[in-house]
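Lecture notes, continued. The same structure-token format from the folding unit now serves as the input rather than the output. Read the line below as a description of shape only.
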């Protein structure tokens, strides 16, 4: 089981199996929330990714969660 609690944007995109551009589009649309730790460091909390996946599954936009 993956115990990582926070992801850098590139890691989150890889986890979701989408491009970084698609990830930033989801952030811009307000579907995924980020946390700005400093002017150069942004993270996405694992629970935020899980919340997004749960809402996508409920909306019918995703078949299943990535293997964790």
């Amino acid at each position: 089981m993956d115990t990582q609690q926070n992801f850098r944007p590139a890691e989150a995109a890889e986890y979701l199996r989408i491009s970084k551009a698609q990830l930033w589009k989801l952030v811009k649309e307000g579907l995924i929330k980020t946390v700005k730790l400093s002017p150069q460091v942004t993270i996405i909390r694992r629970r935020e990714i899980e919340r997004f996946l749960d809402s996508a599954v409920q909306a019918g936009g995703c078949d299943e969660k990535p293997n964790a």
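Point for the exam: The mean pLDDT is 89.
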